[in-house]
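Need a sequence for this fold. Nothing fancy.
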């Protein structure tokens, strides 16, 4: 009789986002047969920029995906910090060649769609990984015959498939998370991100090259080139009670300009340069909650969505994929124990990064005397010292 751990059964992954596709490649490298079920009928170009720091790049390198990203990624030499009130530069953080030399992997910024496309191409080239679009995972349950059955639906059918394990990589509004008893729910942060991309040849030269982080009372703005340096990615974040569960809500340019009305003229001119704005409600999922239940493990945003103030959402999902594969060899005998070992290894690090992001959220939006104190410290800080503050995050490799 077959058992739950029958080697012939696939590992099923819910979600063909950044974490799910990376996990598919990592698990296949271990010899598993993998099925990725993605609820979207097509993987469209929704979204904007992501930051890929050396820790994430080291995983992508091992999976032979990194080199194919080079043409669409961009490596800013510095992150420049600016006061959104005075328009003056506060500090510089060294990235680029300096960070690559420090950690042995690049620091890249990239459009999410370019990263997803590269992962997809690799998945399509990899026998043993089967991607099914338009298939939403609903449940996981044992069958009366000793199999473990994953239940899904498409437009045409309600289906079920035997599997060895189910990996919930279905993002911040995860359905598989609801299958884990005592799970944490996604929590709206009271902050929204307005996002746009603009061709750089339509903008003044000051927006090319380095990344920028502008700090203001209750708001901040990040920009960096993507698409090999051809487009500028802009993320303007503000405190607002709006809630929505999509990545593609549209917003009027006039609204963005109203929210950022007290900002320097240069920045407002930049905001005016895009007619198209997307608006996202920022959510997090407390990483302290349970990530596993029997043969099910959550990863990426499903387990621990975080605010983007450390730009590590994609990075942590990519790291999860490598460590999940490490604990789940093809001949694994006790899948629930292996998944618990994955959770045990990942949780402390992910919690630390999540806390760092929450700390940045407070610091970025200070006003009055605390903001003055922050700016003074930044002005006196050496670019290399500001880079070194995140050695623990950027210096991670899956070999540890
Ligand atoms: C369309 C989209 C655009 C995004 N754009 C950006 C961006 O520009 N910048 C940024 O910083 N972050 C963006 N994100 C979020 C970012 O990708 C994640 O924070 C991070 O990469 C972690 O990835 P993840 O794989 O855990 O989740 P995600 O990348 O969110 O992927 C989750 C996937 O699971 C699928 N899914 C959901 N429920 C089910 C189900 N029940 N069964 C099967 N599939 C399911 C979703 O359709 C999605 O493809 C975006 C996410 C999405 C889905």
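Here you go.
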């Amino acid at each position: 009789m077959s058992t739950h751990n029958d080697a012939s059964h696939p590992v099923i992954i819910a979600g063909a986002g950044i974490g799910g596709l990376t996990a598919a490649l990592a698990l296949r490298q271990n010899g598993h047969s993998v099925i990725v079920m993605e609820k979207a009928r097509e993987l469209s170009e929704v979204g904007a920029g992501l930051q890929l720091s050396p820790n994430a790049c080291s995983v992508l390198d091992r999976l032979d995906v990194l080199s194919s990203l080079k043409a669409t990624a961009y490596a800013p030499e510095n992150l420049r910090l600016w006061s959104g009130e005075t328009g003056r530069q506060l500090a510089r953080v060294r990235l680029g060649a300096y960070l690559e030399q420090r950690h042995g992997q690049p620091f890249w910024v990239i459009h999410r769609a370019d990263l997803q496309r590269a992962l997809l191409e690799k998945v399509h080239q990899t026998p043993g990984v089967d991607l099914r679009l338009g298939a939403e995972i609903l449940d996981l349950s044992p069958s009366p015959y000793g199999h473990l059955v994953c239940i899904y639906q498409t437009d045409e059918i309600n289906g079920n498939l035997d599997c060895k394990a189910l990996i919930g990589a279905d993002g911040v509004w995860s359905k598989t998370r609801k299958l884990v008893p005592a799970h944490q729910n996604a929590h709206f942060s009271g902050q929204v991100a307005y996002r746009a991309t603009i061709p750089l040849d339509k903008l003044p030269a000051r927006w090319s090259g380095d990344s920028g982080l502008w700090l203001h009372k209750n708001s901040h703005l990040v920009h960096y080139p993507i698409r090999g340096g051809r487009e500028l990615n802009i993320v303007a974040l503000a405190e607002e009670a709006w809630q929505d569960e999509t990545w593609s809500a549209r917003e009027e340019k006039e609204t963005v300009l109203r929210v950022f009305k007290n900002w320097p003229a240069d920045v407002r001119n930049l905001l005016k340069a895009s007619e198209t704005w997307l608006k996202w409600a920022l959510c997090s999922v407390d990483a302290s909650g349970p990530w596993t239940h029997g043969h099910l493990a959550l990863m990426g945003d499903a387990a621990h969505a975080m605010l983007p103030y450390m730009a590590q959402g994609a990075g942590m999902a990519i790291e999860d994929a490598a460590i999940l594969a490490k604990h789940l060899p093809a001949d694994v005998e006790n899948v629930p124990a292996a998944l618990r070992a994955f959770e045990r290894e990942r949780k402390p690090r992910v919690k630390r990064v999540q806390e760092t992001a929450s700390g940045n959220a407070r610091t970025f939006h200070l006003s009055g005397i605390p903001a003055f104190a922050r700016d003074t410290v930044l002005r006196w800080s050496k670019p290399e010292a500001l880079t070194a503050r995140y050695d623990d995050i950027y210096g991670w490799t899956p070999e540890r």
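For context: The mean pLDDT is 94.
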